[in-house]
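Lecture notes, part 5. Sequence design as translation. It can be helpful to think of inverse folding as translation between two languages: the language of shapes and the language of residues. The source text, in structure tokens, appears below.
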């Protein structure tokens, strides 16, 4: 069970809070993009979109080693949202969305161990397209040095989920017959497009076709 803290306990719509860590893991594993919230060196808030990967109870994110926002251990907030549907109600007030979201808070650490650093980069690549790490050239020393990796434990996290139809059924009973329902939202990967620097008949690897 996820242990709520004052920073992760929902104050509104508490019935939407999920406490099962497998739900948190599933959301992080399905999402392709996360947003990392930090306070920049000037004291201003900054939210960075980036790629991530979960390994056990740790989530890794990466960026440029030259970025000041990734240079130090610091308090961060990592968020992921999966939009599943637009909920169109009979009243504007009751409009909503079906979604699964996760918020992870804590002190991120800069990964300095070379082995963990390489494993984290592999996990991020494999999260996006399984099989690509073995297919591509491995990073050399210069490339690894240019890539910063942050690790964030999943000790302090909250999960919020909303699924189902609009929440204004009492209007139907009152005779309001305006249409209401859910418009599903899905993420679909398209057909691979070969790099123009390659011959057009270069075969697409099987692991890429499987991902599409």
């Amino acid at each position: 069970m996820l242990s709520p803290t004052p920073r992760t306990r929902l104050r509104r719509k508490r019935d939407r809070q999920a406490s099962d860590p497998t739900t948190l893991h599933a959301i992080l594993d399905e999402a392709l993009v996360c947003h990392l919230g930090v306070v920049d060196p000037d004291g201003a808030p900054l939210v960075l979109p980036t790629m991530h990967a979960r390994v056990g109870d740790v989530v890794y994110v990466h960026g440029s080693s030259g970025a000041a926002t990734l240079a130090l251990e610091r308090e961060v907030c990592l968020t992921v949202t999966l939009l599943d549907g637009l909920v169109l109600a009979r009243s504007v007030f009751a409009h909503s969305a079906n979604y699964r979201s996760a918020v992870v808070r804590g002190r991120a650490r800069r990964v300095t161990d070379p082995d963990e650093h390489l494993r984290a980069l592999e996990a991020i690549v494999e999260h996006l397209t399984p099989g690509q790490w073995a297919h591509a050239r491995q990073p050399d020393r210069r490339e690894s040095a240019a890539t910063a990796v942050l690790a964030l434990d999943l000790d302090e996290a909250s999960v919020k989920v909303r699924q189902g139809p609009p929440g204004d059924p009492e209007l139907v009973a009152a005779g309001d017959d305006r249409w209401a329902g859910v418009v599903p939202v899905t993420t679909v990967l398209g057909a691979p497009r070969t790099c123009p620097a390659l011959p057009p008949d270069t075969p697409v690897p099987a692991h890429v076709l499987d991902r599409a």
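The translated text above is only one of many valid answers, since several sequences can fold into similar shapes. The mean pLDDT is 90.
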